[in-house]
Design goal:
Layout lengths: L1 H21 L10 E7 L2 H8 L4 H10 L23 E7 L7 E8 L2 E10 L2 E10 L12 E4 L8 E10 L2 E12 L2 E14 L8 E14 L2 E14 L14 H4 L2 E12 L4 E4 L1 H8 L12
Antiparallel strand pairs: 1-5, 2-3, 3-4, 4-5, 6-7, 7-8, 8-9, 9-10, 10-11, 11-12, 12-13
Helix pairs in contact: 2-3
Length: 295
C-alpha cells in the first residue's frame, strides 16, 4: 500500500514544518518601496554603519534593508565579518525643502545597498532602497546613485545605475525615480550602456553601445534628449607579447549614431512622451563627434 503511506508521510512533514515556517520573519519586499520605518538622521545612520561595534552596525544595516545573509559577523568557515562595509556614502537632496531627502549607500561583499530617507514632521523615515550586484564595476559605489533635478527644479530625482552581464556581455541600466506622496515612482528607464564581445569570432574587441542623455527644458517642459551611439571597443587590454592586438585604427575610431529622440514630460500621463517636433529639430543635427566614451 505505497500511496497511503506517501500521503501520511507528506502530512507528517507538513505538520512538522508548518509551525517552524510560521515563525520565520516576513522578508522585506523586493522594493524599491518599503514599509516606512523611523530612522535616525542620515549623518547618524552613516556613523552607525561605520561603527566599530558590530551590534550597532547590524542594527543600522537592518534599517538600510540589507539582506539577512549579509548580517553575519562571522561567516561559515570563519570567514570575514560581512557587517563591515568596504565603503559608505551619504547624499542629500531636495523633496519639499532643502536637505529633507537623503540616500545612504553602503557596499558589502560585492553588493551595494542604497536606502532612501525622508524627513517629515515627526523626524526621518526610511521609505525604500535600491540594491545592485555591480561586480563588473571597478568601484561599485561610484555612479550607482546620483541625485539631480530632472522634472521641476529644485526637487531632486534619484538616478540609479545598476549593471550586470556575463559570457562576453556587460550591460548597465539607468532608472530615474521621483518621490511622490512619500513613495518612489519610476519615471524613466533605459539601457545606458552595453558592451557585447565577440568571443565566437575569435576577436579581441567588441561593440560598445552607449546612451547619452541631455537634460533640457523645451516648451517650458522638462525634456530628455536621448542619443544612442555605437563604436568598437577593445574587449581585453592589447598585449602584443600575448598575441592580443587592438582592432584596426579605422575600425576602432568609427562611431555611428543608431538612435535619437527627444522626450517631453507629460504631467497628465506622468511619463516622458516622444516629441516629433523636437526629435526632428534636435536629431537633425550631426551626430556628436569624438569617441563614444567621451562625456
Amino acid at each position: 500500500m505505497p500511496y497511503p503511506l506517501a500521503i501520511c508521510t507528506f502530512a507528517l512533514i507538513l505538520l512538522v514544518t508548518t509551525p517552524a515556517a510560521a515563525q520565520q520573519p516576513t522578508p522585506e519586499p523586493l522594493g524599491p518601496n518599503l514599509p516606512h520605518l523611523a530612522a535616525p538622521s542620515p549623518t547618524e545612520l552613516l556613523n552607525q554603519l561605520l561603527s566599530p561595534d558590530a551590534a550597532i552596525r547590524v542594527k543600522a544595516l537592518t534599517l538600510v534593508a540589507v539582506a539577512p545573509l549579509f548580517l553575519m559577523t562571522r561567516t561559515p568557515g570563519g570567514g570575514d565579518d560581512w557587517t563591515v562595509p568596504s565603503e559608505a556614502r551619504l547624499f542629500f537632496g531636495h523633496y519639499q525643502n532643502d536637505n529633507d531627502m537623503a540616500v545612504v549607500a553602503v557596499n558589502i561583499h560585492q553588493y551595494t545597498w542604497a536606502s532612501v530617507l525622508l524627513r517629515g514632521a515627526s523626524g526621518w523615515e526610511r521609505i525604500g532602497r535600491f540594491v545592485c550586484w555591480c561586480r563588473y564595476e571597478s568601484n561599485p559605489m561610484e555612479g550607482f546613485i546620483e541625485l539631480r533635478p530632472v522634472l521641476h527644479w529644485p526637487q531632486t530625482e534619484i538616478l540609479v545605475h545598476d549593471s550586470g552581464g556575463g559570457s562576453g556581455l556587460y550591460t548597465r541600466n539607468l532608472s530615474v525615480y521621483r518621490i511622490r506622496n512619500s513613495r518612489l515612482e519610476q519615471i524613466f528607464d533605459t539601457e545606458d550602456k552595453r558592451v557585447d564581445g565577440h568571443p565566437t569570432q575569435n576577436t579581441d574587441y567588441g561593440t560598445l553601445t552607449e546612451t547619452r542623455i541631455d537634460y533640457r527644458t523645451l516648451d517650458n517642459t522638462s525634456a530628455l534628449a536621448v542619443v544612442r551611439l555605437e563604436s568598437i571597443e577593445p574587449w581585453v587590454p592589447p598585449d602584443a607579447s600575448k598575441g592580443i592586438y587592438p582592432p584596426p585604427l579605422e575600425v576602432y575610431k568609427s562611431v555611428r549614431r543608431i538612435g535619437c529622440e527627444v522626450l517631453l514630460w507629460d504631467n497628465g500621463k506622468a511619463a516622458f512622451v516622444r516629441s516629433r517636433k523636437w526629435t526632428a529639430s534636435y536629431c537633425g543635427q550631426p551626430p556628436p563627434s569624438g569617441h563614444a566614451t567621451q562625456k
